[in-house]
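Pasting as-is:
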Amino acid sequence: MVDGGWWMEKTDSIVFFHPPSTIHHPPGLMKVVVGLGNPGSRYQGTRHNVGFDVIDSLASGPHAGRFQSRFQAQVAELHEDGGKVLLVKPETFMNLSGRSVRQVLDFFQAPTTDLLVVCDDINLPLGKVRIRARGTHGGHNGLRDIQNHLGGVEYSRLRIGVDAPRDEAIDHVLGRFRPAERAVIEDAVALAAQAAIVWVRQGVEAAMNKYNAETKDKGGKNLN
């Protein structure tokens, strides 16, 4: 913080000075939910941007503040169950998401156990939601970059199925949902937003037990 409430943000060799922010919080006492995607209208509604859609859903409620530009991202603060949650949409483009995530965690001195990353997954059927407490990037470039910047895999992730590509994977994830798919993905985004709130309130194990269980058959066998 510098005089007049302005604050300094340093990334690589560049220093930015920002005007006073409405987001103030003691270090180490904030949950962070990051939705992955690509910025700009060109990418709105694409499969790769379902993480952004979940963040927008969480930010649409009455207890969320307005988005502000910080940490190479759009961020908003959500008041939830007596605590605060920072909602983050990195603007670095998908493959460089780790830059923004690292800046947020460093600034708020948040451990990786207080981080939830929401993203698309081509290995899950359309609309399926899967939560994990840790794990590798699984070929997802956004998660790969976050893993590289954090130096580990000990953070929660919430994946939303966007179905397997018929042709090239890049064309698939940067493409928009077909009309017949939109209702399914809208329900999935709403479900993922609910799962994120359970993660905030009760932790990753409770979220996994509640939402991963919905993808099992009656015999308890995973369908995915």
